[in-house]
Amino acid sequence: MRRRVLLTVVAGTLMTGLPAFADEPIKIGLIAPFSGPFADYGKQMEDGIKAYQRLHGTTAGGRQVQIIVKDTTGPVPDVAKRLAQELVVRDKVDFLAGFGLTPEALAVAPIAQQAKKPMVIFNAASSSITTKSDYVTRVSMTLPQISTPIASWALKNGIKQVATVVADYAPGIDAENAFKQTFTAGGGQVVEAVRVPLRNPEFAPFIQRVKDAKPQAVFVFLPAGEQGVAFMKGFRERGLAQAGIKVIATGDLTDDHVLPAMGDATLGVITSFHYSAAHDSPQNKTFLKAFAEANPGAGRPNFMAVAAYDGIGAIYNVINKLGGKIDGEKAMAAFKGMKIDSPRGPITIDPATRDVVQTVYIRKVEKVGNELYNVEFDKFADVKDPGK
Ligand code: PHB
């Protein structure tokens, strides 16, 4: 039996000049919502991968790279978990990737741990995810990482009283806590803290509570997409701008993909974030061009497309480093300390935490030509997830 296996390997090597495993594709399971209220998350990720593959092809380490797309219909952690199990057991994937929403990433982390499969997070941003398995790494952001800089910026700019509005789940609680900690430590005061449901939020009563608290500004974290549009609509309709209340937020609120349709009420909104489509660099120009060519009619890419582009690049690097022979432990060692020349600016995977270290920019919504953009005007370099 052993001899027969050996002979097969030798025969495979003779025929192709490569070891037999090289005939098989490397498989990457992409788990994200592709339908339902967060369908855009999966689409952005898949389109970001296509942009990368347009520039770098579909082979790495001498092997074909196959992406197996799985729709969680999310947020549904149980479905994400079942899909991850299927990908590991039946499809025998080499990597798990994607993960738009924190609850889905948390549901899959134990499977990555048990199967020793690298799990590369393209978005899910609650701080704790990377602590749930030694096989998790993240190339996107964490909520404390992007919420702390805007608290510092607000204090420096004379804002002393703030109401907070966050989605009522782990990333929202992270954002609320991180903002409050930095803001109150610097002498600011949180006069109202509102949490809105993740599913089908009805913003009107929450926005009224903010108005009644009469803060100088409202700090907002809502998951990217339609919720930001609905919040800004309510903000406008209830006259908060007229009452002199400013909007400061994480950049999820003015996500590049929805910003062009958000209207002039967003002009002047200040956000902190790791990526803006307006980021001025050759790397970003290359990315935007490849994204447009690979995905005609898809519109403007957002931070999830960028994270997928960087994340698939990180996976290609690992495959190349390992000569196409994937082993979970060796793959994780290869991710640690990796530097990526991202469209957002240079990023590093912290070898100690496997989490992303990056510049966080302060941006203002402005018209560039005839279109709304998040224009960067200040930055905080080398920001780690605070507390790690
Ligand atoms: C998350 O669930 O972790 C999440 C979703 C959307 C965002 C940010 C974080 O915009």
Summarize the SSE layout with pairings:
Elements: H1 2-16, E1 26-32, H2 39-56, E2 59-60, E3 63-71, H3 77-89, E4 95-98, H4 102-115, E5 119-121, E6 136-138, H5 143-156, E7 161-167, H6 170-185, E8 189-196, H7 204-213, E9 217-221, H8 226-237, E10 246-250, E11 270-273, H9 282-294, H10 303-321, H11 328-335, E12 339-342, E13 345-349, E14 356-368, E15 371-383
Parallel strand pairs: 1-3, 1-4, 4-5, 5-6, 7-8, 7-9, 9-10, 10-11
Antiparallel strand pairs: 2-3, 11-14, 12-13, 13-14, 14-15
Bound molecules: P-hydroxybenzoic acid (PHB).
P-hydroxybenzoic acid (PHB) binds at residues 100-102, 123-126, 171, 223-224, 252.
Please give a structural write-up.
- This protein is an alpha/beta fold.
- It has two domains: 24-140 and 278-353, Rossmann fold (3-Layer(aba) Sandwich), CATH 3.40.50; 142-272 and 359-381, 3-Layer(aba) Sandwich (Rossmann fold).
- Helix content is 39%, strand content 24%.
- It has eleven helices and 15 strands.
- The strands form two sheets. Strands 7, 8, 9, 10, 11, 12, 13, 14 and 15 form a nine-stranded mixed β-sheet that branches. Strands 2-3-1-4-5-6 form a six-stranded mixed β-sheet, with helices on both faces.
- α6 (170-185) links the parallel β7 and β8.
- α3 (77-89) runs parallel beside α4 (102-115) and α5 packs parallel to α6 (170-185).
- The radius of gyration is 22 Å and the shape is globular.
- The N and C termini lie far apart (50 Å).
- The model is unreliable at 1-13 (pLDDT under 50).
- The chain binds P-hydroxybenzoic acid (PHB).
- P-hydroxybenzoic acid binds at residues 100-102, 123-126, 171, 223-224, 252.
